[in-house]
What does this fold into?
Amino acid sequence: MLYLLRMLLMGLHFMVAGVLGVLLGICRPFNPDNSRLCARLYALPAMWILRLRVKTQVDSLRNKPNSCVIIANHQSNYDLFVFGNVVPYRTVCIGKKSLKWVPLFGQLFWLAGNVLIDRGNAQKARRSMLTTTHTLQHEDTSIWVFPEGTRNLGETLLPFKKGAFQMAIAAGVPIVPVCVSTYVKQMKLNAWNSGDILIRSLPAIPTTGLTMDDMPQLMLTCRAQMLDCIEAMDRELQTTPEIAGEPHRIR
It folds into this structure.
């Protein structure tokens, strides 16, 4: 019963947040800080509705360079609400072009200045990547990417795709990994408290002086660091179940 009530409230919240986000986008279209504001708009009420307790340790994300590529693990559609707690200032996201057909959210996503990529058209995808490189180099804006390219459904990290690392090397900006604990299979949405989640960011990884020949090793390094971090957070939650039992905080 509680699960059904939550899903109804989440559906209503998704529509209301979409309307407010579109209005924000119309008032200041393509402002790169719209993404952060819209992310909070989705995340804060959702954490209250779902009763997910989130603890964040994201100093390296909060104090990130003006321009960087942020990479994060991608578990489920709930990531919109979970990671929405920590999206930093002037950060846009890369998403698939089909998102624009999602009522309200698609229009909000576009007006927030996010980048829509047609993955089925290699030429258009490359052109979008060139645009993001210019954004990173000249507009003091960071780009958030899910390098797995799709949801891992709470399993181990999938192999990373090249796009995020190509952008970072081409623009000469650092990569900031952000990790969330494995939550999607642990959520108990029919219980009053649905579960605990940890989010941590890792130190920035510089790309200055790297070439595309260095990209495979860079991808392996980032993936290994994120995998270690996720496994450490999962162990922490298993051994200390109440570690995230305080109200969620945004740092």
